[in-house]
Amino acid sequence: MNGSTPTPARTTRQRTEVTALLQEVNDFLTAQQLHGLLRERGAKVGLTTVYRTLQRMVETGEVDATRTPDGEQLFRQCSRSRHHHHLVCRMCGRTVEIEGPAMERWTEKVADQHGYTDIAHTLEIFGTCSACAR
Amino acid sequence: MNGSTPTPARTTRQRTEVTALLQEVNDFLTAQQLHGLLRERGAKVGLTTVYRTLQRMVETGEVDATRTPDGEQLFRQCSRSRHHHHLVCRMCGRTVEIEGPAMERWTEKVADQHGYTDIAHTLEIFGTCSACAR
DNA sequence: ATGAACACGATAATCGTTTTCATTTAGGAG
DNA sequence: CTCCTAAATGAAAACGATTATCGTGTTCAT
Question: Where would one find coiled-coil regions in this protein (chains A, B) (predicted)?
Answer without folding.
Answer: none
